[in-house]
Design brief:
The protein is an all-alpha fold and 73 residues long. 85% of the residues lie in helices and 0% in strands. The longest helix has 26 residues, at 24-49. The protein is rod-shaped, with a radius of gyration of 29 Å. The N and C termini lie far apart (86 Å).
C-alpha cells in the first residue's frame, strides 16, 4: 500500500514538473512583450518627431474653443 502511494506521488510530481518545463506559452508571452516594447518605442519616437505639429494642433483647437481664431471650420 505504501509503495502504491509513493508511486502515485512520484507520477503526480513528474506530471507537475512536465507542466513547469513546457515553454510553449512562455515563447508566446515573450513575443507579446517584445511587440509591446516596440509599439511603445514607435509611439514615443513619433511624439518626439512630431512634437511641434502636435502642439500646434492643440493650440489651434484651444483657440477655436475660446473663439479667438477666425480660421475655425
Amino acid at each position: 500500500m505504501i509503495n502504491a502511494l509513493a508511486l502515485r506521488l512520484l507520477v503526480a510530481l513528474r506530471g507537475f514538473t512536465d507542466r513547469l518545463e513546457d515553454e510553449e506559452g512562455q515563447t508566446l508571452a515573450e513575443y507579446g512583450l517584445m511587440m509591446a516594447i516596440v509599439a511603445v518605442a514607435v509611439i514615443v519616437t513619433a511624439v518626439i518627431v512630431f512634437r511641434d505639429a502636435i502642439a500646434g494642433r492643440f493650440t489651434e483647437a484651444a483657440n477655436c474653443l475660446n473663439g479667438t481664431s477666425a480660421g475655425c471650420s
